[in-house]
Amino acid sequence: MTTFIIRRLIQAVIVVILVTLAVFLVMRILPGDPLYMLYTPNQIQEFTDEQLAEIRHAAGLDRPLLVQYVTWIGGTLKGDLGRSVIHKTYVSDEVAKRLPITAHIGVLSFVIGIIIGIPIGIISAIRRGTWLDTVVTSLANIGITIPVFWLGMMLIYIFSCLLYTSPSPR
Predict the structure, then answer these.
(1) Is the pLDDT confidence value at 147 over 70?
(2) What pLDDT score does 58 carry?
(3) DSSP one-letter string for the chain
(4) 7: CB partners within 8 A, 6+ apart
(5) What average pLDDT does range 128-157 have in this prediction?
(6) DSSP-assigned beta bridge partners for residue 90
(7) How far is CA 168 from the centre of its chain?
(8) Which residue of 31, 104, 140, 154 is surrounded by the most CB atoms within 10 Å?
(9) 148 vs 5, 50, 153, CA distance in Å?
(10) pLDDT digits (tens, 9 = 90+) for 32-76
């Protein structure tokens, strides 16, 4: 059992390294200059070549890819997720600000899932082979196979566009 756990941990570390490497390389291979995420094209035209070189140096974009990757991973392991391009604040502050709401939604979903799932599972087990069992099993299989990103977009569309009625002005 211990060797199985150690083997799985080694595999997990390898997968994490490969995924972070893939994400890093894909972000660097994309066409365009990373400075366009920080500044508008009009702002960049106003900079001199020396200023652009200084900005690239400050951001670490003039270093080799391997050095950039190691620096990025090192910062991430220390909890430094960098600065938000949009908000110009630290990403860790943005995550900390949104974490309580995310935790609340997660706990609420878990509780609702338990309240609904366990009784329906018990009923389905008691009435095995009936139409109720077939319906519950089919719905469970559909729920498992639906891609989460698609379901999220559909729920946002349904609740924000179709069901939301703006209050009428008085």
Answers:
(1) yes
(2) 84
(3) -HHHHHHHHHHHHHHHHHHHHHHHHHHHHSSS-THHHHS-HHHHHHS-HHHHHHHHHHHTTTS-HHHHHHHHHHHHHTT---B-TTT-SBHHHHHHHHHHHHHHHHHHHHHHHHHHHHHHHHHHHHTTTSHHHHHHHHHHHHHHHS-HHHHHHHHHHIIIIIS--PPPP-
(4) none
(5) 92
(6) 83
(7) 36
(8) 140
(9) 29, 47, 9
(10) 777 777 788 888 888 888 888 888 888 888 888 889 899 989 988
Residue type for 65, please? L
Average of pLDDT values for 148-168?
A: 85
- What span, in angstroms and rounded, lies between the C-alpha atoms of 156 and 149? 11
Q: What angle do CA 89, 94, 95 make, to 5 degrees?
A: 145
| The residue to which tokens 């690239």 are assigned | 56
- The pLDDT of residue 61 is 84
pTM of the predicted model as reported, rounded to 2 decimal places: 0.58
